[in-house]
Design goal:
By secondary structure, the chain is mainly beta. It contains nine helices and 48 strands. It has a 22-stranded antiparallel barrel. The chain is globular.
Length: about 800
């Protein structure tokens, strides 16, 4: 989709991209790439990649239960802090691969490029599905200022931005950008009587461009950002429960009779336990939730220094140095309900240094090349402590939160925690080459190769800990199976074991202290493209490429076995036939790509009720067709459309953990095979499914946009636009009970603005104009079989946009 700036008259304006690491016209680059311009981001009030992805078919950025999922052409990385992303993010040339960095708020964006398919040769590892290239506003010598204020109903959002640009001296230019925003959210929490997700962000960026000579330049960017969140926009979408009577009973130390576990109660008992905490609880509403208070605090810093020296007009050396870091603290209600038996603080610390050198040159008039080296080192730490209060497990059996037998005693008698952390260091070095040879003025061959070596060293720990603390409990078993350790800790666990034996015994048996492991990998990633220009307005190309994403360490692992603690690398081979056409005397453009991508060992995770089961899918593939077009029909009327037809599925993917609904609802949801434990062989019981042949992305998605600019006076014009976005039906392949129906969204807007660049403008944007209700994402709640959690999408919202430029 070419969502770019308006053309002049009926001729489309040239769109520049950096898909081959240098500025080129979009229509001349043999790469499937979608571009969203700064003006489109402004007109559609896009605040981040999550919102932008709705306008690029085949590209998705969605926040899930624990992390953000990013996909291109259906391929995404599963949810695990140990995973690198299959989609690489590059901001002003600096790699930003952690999922947390995909949530960054937009400020003074020049353009966003979405590169589809493997991009390993020029952009490196962790681009097996594609890459996102963001370019921020760059300094110039001309003075300008851009001030804006936006106000959005429903969520009471206020956004204030200021960008000032200009020359400080004849050789030094600067650009300063500031943003502050706050909002109250669109979901009301009936337990806390607060709206969620509330947020407050501020970002400051200063960019300097120094050009002391005609052959040398240095650009330095300094950026600091902070954001705070209160609550999250999710709720309980349905409560089904399980019929009582399954033979999973246990005795209770307090004298309670043997009964079904809290995970095995009917919907009436389940609702009763929720209502005991919140009498206003309702399930399945799109504007209401009920849960404990949650918070998130993130502080990030980014530095980028780009130096360029031109030896000759055809030969230049570029150095790109980068530093990025963030610290985040999350407090999450991970029972996702009004009860308070599961709460999880998560701490993340990340910092990265990177250095890249690029040599661009030509040999004669027919061969140009890029030679580069890249290295980075990053450190990532995450700890997750799950606080457990087991008293809530008694509620479905008639106990109330005020029952003196249970709730008048010390709370510490019923509380424990499980703590896991991952401390990982990654070092990577790569060398790459890409060259283009012009056989004739119309035939071109581009070939490239990248070598990469990566070393990951991680220390992880998993054990019982004190409730509300990172102090590990001193509890273990001797050779006879008896609990030993601190008397107080042993007494606590003995009491809890009488009520919740399975979970706690599992932690004790698989706990570990400070295990360290190293993974080292080397990879060669080739790429070759043949392009042909049959006319001055037509370019056709054939492309083949391979990509690689490194293996790593499972941050949520619960076992001692190496197979549980690590996951393998994933690889991809991609093939593409595409074309880019200028039509109707330059007033229209049509781009297409027929593609096929074959993955081996795709890294996946499956939610199994209390953890994510992490592994590698055997073989997967995606094939399909992408079309993008834009037409300046008249000087006033502009039309654009894009679509993707996609067949993305697992080819070989067996031995996956069954989802919770498959275990408990086998009649309507077949496919789960139970294998009893084999005491002779020492193998535990298992619930496994075969997902070979299952699709994992919508078959069809697309959008259509129309913009009309009416000239009101010689100095004033009215821009009107409407955009329709369609997303096809999708089913979660690893949990066939979760489906997302197709949806069609409509955004409309109008802006009164000056005919030139400077002056006042005011606009009104209506997002989700038909007030469509749907869930972005759903999954089963922990230890509450039959309870499903959903992330409701925003309702219809009205945004007043004001802007002043001079």
């Amino acid at each position: 989709m070419v969502l770019a700036a308006e053309g002049s008259g009926r001729t489309l304006e040239e769109v520049l991209v950096t898909a081959q690491r240098r500025p080129q016209s979009l229509q001349d680059v043999p790469v499937a790439v979608s571009v969203v311009s700064s003006e489109t981001i402004r007109e559609l009030s896009l605040q981040n990649l999550d919102q932008l992805s709705a306008y690029v078919p085949g590209f998705s950025v969605r926040e899930g239960g624990e992390q953000t999922s990013i996909s291109i052409r259906g391929f995404a990385t599963g949810l695990n802090f140990g995973f690198d992303q299959s989609v690489g993010l590059f901001i002003d040339g600096i790699y930003a691969g952690r999922e947390r960095q995909f949530r960054s708020t937009f400020l003074d964006i020049g353009s966003v490029e979405v590169l589809k398919g493997p991009q390993a040769t020029l952009f490196g590892k962790n681009t097996t599905a594609g890459a996102v290239v963001i370019t921020t506003g760059q300094p110039t010598q001309d003075f300008s200022a851009d001030l804006s204020a936006d106000f959005t109903s429903e969520i009471d959002r206020q956004i204030y931005t200021a960008v000032v640009n200009g020359g400080l001296t004849d050789t030094l230019a600067a650009r300063v950008a500031l943003r502050y925003s706050e909002e109250d959210g669109y979901v009301r929490n009936t337990l806390t009587n607060e709206r969620e997700e509330q947020g407050e962000d501020w970002i400051a960026r200063a960019t300097f461009l120094w050009t002391p000579t005609a052959s040398f330049s240095m650009r330095t960017k300094l950026e600091h950002s902070e954001y705070e969140r209160y609550g999250r926009a999710f709720n309980i979408s349905s409560v089904n429960g399980v019929e009582v009577g399954r033979p999973t009973c246990f005795g209770m130390a307090t004298g309670w009779p043997c009964a079904a576990t809290a995970a095995d109660v009917g919907p009436e008992a389940r609702l009763s336990s929720y209502l005991a905490y919140d009498p206003d609880f309702l399930a399945g509403t799109f504007d209401q939730t009920s849960k404990q208070q949650e918070t998130a605090d993130v502080e990030a810093n980014n530095v980028a220094i780009r130096m360029e020296y031109s030896f000759t007009p055809d030969t230049r050396l570029v150095s790109i140095s980068g530093y990025s870091s963030y610290d985040s603290e999350d407090q999450r209600d991970v029972d996702w309900s009004p009860t308070d038996f599961l709460y999880e603080p998560i701490t993340q610390e990340f910092d990265q240094f990177s250095q890249e050198l690029q040599l661009f040159s030509k040999i004669g008039d027919r061969f140009e090349y890029l030679l580069g080296v890249h290295g980075f080192k990053n450190d990532f730490y995450v700890d997750r402590r799950t606080d457990v209060d087991i008293r809530v497990f008694l509620l479905p059996f008639g106990v109330q939160p005020t029952d003196p037998l249970i709730f008048d005693g010390p709370a510490s008698d019923w509380r424990y925690a499980q703590l896991r952390y991952l401390d990982q260091e990654t070092e990577s070095i790569a060398a790459y080459f890409s060259g283009t040879f012009d056989f004739t003025p119309t035939w071109h061959l581009t070939a490239g190769l990248r070598w990469n070596r990566e070393d990951k060293t991680a220390t992880d720990r998993y054990a019982l800990s004190e409730f509300g603390s990172t102090r590990f409990l001193d509890v273990s078993r001797d050779s006879g199976g008896n609990l030993i350790g601190s008397p107080a800790d042993v007494a606590l666990i003995t009491r809890i074991l009488a009520t919740l034996p399975g979970n706690v015994n599992g932690i004790i048996n698989t706990s570990r202290v400070g295990l360290t492991q190293t993974i080292s990998e080397e990879d060669w990633s080739p790429e070759i493209t043949l392009s042909w220009d049959p006319t001055a307005d037509t370019m056709l190309y054939l492309k083949a490429a391979q990509g690689h994403k490194g293996g790593g360490f499972n941050s949520a692992t619960v076992g001692q076995n190496a197979s549980d603690r690590t996951f393998r690398d994933e690889t991809v081979t991609g093939y593409e036939f595409g074309g880019k056409l200028r039509l109707l005397d330059g007033s229209a453009a049509l781009n297409f790509a027929l593609f096929r991508q074959e993955f081996e060992d795709l890294q996946t995770s499956t939610w199994v009720g209390d953890a994510f089961d992490v592994g590698n899918a055997g073989k997967s593939r995606a094939q399909g067709l992408e079309l993008e077009t834009i037409w300046q029909a008249t000087e006033a009327l502009r039309l654009n459309a894009s679509m993707i037809w996609l067949d993305a599925r697992f080819l070989e993917n067996s031995g996956n953990a069954c989802s919770i609904p498959q275990r408990y609802f086998p009649d309507p949801v077949p496919g789960c095979v139970f294998t009893p434990a084999d005491t002779t062989a020492g193998t535990p019981a298992s619930y496994l499914q075969d997902n070979s042949g299952d699709r994992f992305a919508p078959t069809f998605s697309g959008n259509f946009g129309v913009g009309y600019t009416a000239s009101l006076t010689s100095s004033l014009e009215l821009l009107m636009r409407a955009d329709v976005v369609y997303t096809g039906h999708q089913r979660n392949p690893l949990d066939p009970t979760i489906e997302q129906g197709s949806r069609t969204l409509l955004d409309v807007g109008a802006t009164l603005r000056p005919a030139g660049e400077d002056g006042w403008s005011v606009g009104l944007l209506v997002q989700n104009a038909t007030d469509e209700e749907y869930y972005w994402y759903e999954f089963e709640a922990p230890a509450q079989t039959g309870t499903r959690i959903g992330f409701p999408a925003p309702p219809r919202m009205y945004t007043l946009q004001t802007r002043y430029r001079f």
